[in-house]
Design goal:
The protein has two domains: 91 residues, no CATH class; 173 residues, 3-Layer(aba) Sandwich (Rossmann fold). The chain is built from eleven helices and ten strands. It is globular, with a radius of gyration of 20 Å. The strands form two sheets. A seven-stranded mixed sheet has the order 6-5-4-7-8-10-9, sandwiched between helices. Strands 1-2-3 form a three-stranded mixed sheet, with no helix packed on it. The protein is an alpha/beta fold. The relative contact order is 0.11.
C-alpha cells in the first residue's frame, strides 16, 4: 500500500479530495437489466460500496465501476438530464451511452455529409443530439429511420412505445420545429427508397435486430466520409451478439474493425 492509499483509508474520501485538489466526487445508481434477484444484487452493491470505502461509483445500465472521474456528471448538459426534470430513469441510467454518442457526433460535425439514426424509437436520443449539434448552422440534415411499430413475431425488440398507435406521428411532432430533421417510417433498408443522404458524416445504428443493421451498414459504409464514425448501440451486449457476428464481417470487407466499449456500444471509425 502506497503512502497516498494509506492516507486515504484514514479519512473520508471527500476530505481527501478537497485537500488534494481532486474533482468533487459524483456517483450514480440507476436501472440495470437482466437481474434475476434484485435483493441479492442490491446486497452485492452495498458490499462493494463498503469494500471500496464509498469511492465515487457508477452502477447503471449494467456498468459497475468506481474511482473514476465520471466526466459527464460534471457537464451541465448531462447534469440537467440527471436531474430528471425532462428525462426518465432509463435515459438517466443510459447517460454514459449518450455521453459517448454526443462526443463522437460533435467530433464529426465538421466533416462532409449528413447525420443518420437508424432506429430512433420515440426520438429521445436524436432530440438530445440536436441540442448539442447545430444542424441549421452547419447546413446538415438529420435522417431518422424506424418501423414505429411492433407486431407479434417481429425480430426487433418490443418496447412500451410500440403500444402507441401515434408513435410515428409523435416523433414527427417532436421535430416539427426542426425542418432539417427527416423522419422516415418503414423497414430498413427498404425504406431508404423514400430518401437517403448521398454523404454521411455520422451514423447511429440501434435497431435491436441483426438483419436491418447489416442492411444499414452495407448502405452507410460506402457513403461515410473519411474520419466519419458509426456508433452501434447493441454491439457489445451478449444478448444481442448476433449483431456482432453479422456486422464484423461487413466491416472487415472494408478493412475496418469495430471497437467494443464497456457501455455495450461499438464504434467504427472510417480511416
Amino acid at each position: 500500500m502506497g503512502l497516498s492509499e494509506q492516507a486515504m483509508t484514514n479519512q473520508s474520501w471527500d476530505q481527501y479530495g478537497k485537500e488534494h485538489g481532486l474533482l468533487e466526487p459524483r456517483s450514480l445508481f440507476g436501472a440495470n437489466f437482466n437481474i434475476v434477484d434484485q435483493h441479492k444484487f442490491k446486497q452485492a452493491i452495498q458490499l462493494l460500496r463498503e469494500s471500496t470505502g464509498n469511492l465515487p461509483m457508477f452502477v447503471a445500465d449494467n456498468v459497475i465501476t468506481w474511482n473514476k472521474n465520471f466526466s459527464f456528471m460534471h457537464d451541465e448538459f448531462f447534469v440537467k438530464i440527471l436531474s430528471g426534470h425532462d428525462s426518465n430513469v432509463i435515459e438517466q441510467s443510459t447517460i454514459w451511452r449518450l455521453y459517448v454518442l454526443i462526443y463522437f457526433a460533435e467530433t464529426c460535425q465538421d466533416l462532409p455529409g449528413d447525420f443518420v439514426e437508424l432506429g430512433c424509437n420515440k426520438g429521445s436520443t436524436a432530440k438530445r443530439l440536436t441540442e448539442r449539434v447545430d444542424f441549421q448552422k452547419l447546413g446538415k440534415r438529420f435522417w431518422l429511420f424506424d418501423l414505429f411499430e411492433w407486431k407479434q413475431g417481429d425480430a426487433h425488440t418490443y418496447l412500451p412505445e410500440h403500444d402507441d398507435p401515434n408513435m410515428h406521428l409523435n416523433v414527427l411532432n417532436r421535430f416539427a420545429d426542426q425542418p432539417w430533421v427527416n423522419v422516415i417510417k418503414g423497414s430498413v433498408p427498404d425504406s431508404f427508397d423514400q430518401g437517403f443522404p448521398d454523404c454521411i458524416a455520422f451514423a447511429h445504428i440501434d435497431m435491436n435486430d441483426p438483419a436491418p443493421e447489416a442492411g444499414a451498414l452495407n448502405k452507410v459504409l460506402p457513403l461515410l466520409s473519411p474520419g466519419g464514425i458509426i456508433i452501434f448501440d447493441d454491439y457489445g451486449w451478449w444478448g444481442y451478439s448476433r449483431q456482432k457476428k453479422i456486422l464484423d464481417p461487413i466491416a472487415d470487407q472494408h478493412n475496418l474493425s469495430i471497437l467494443e466499449l464497456p457501455t455495450g456500444q461499438g464504434i467504427l471509425l472510417k480511416r
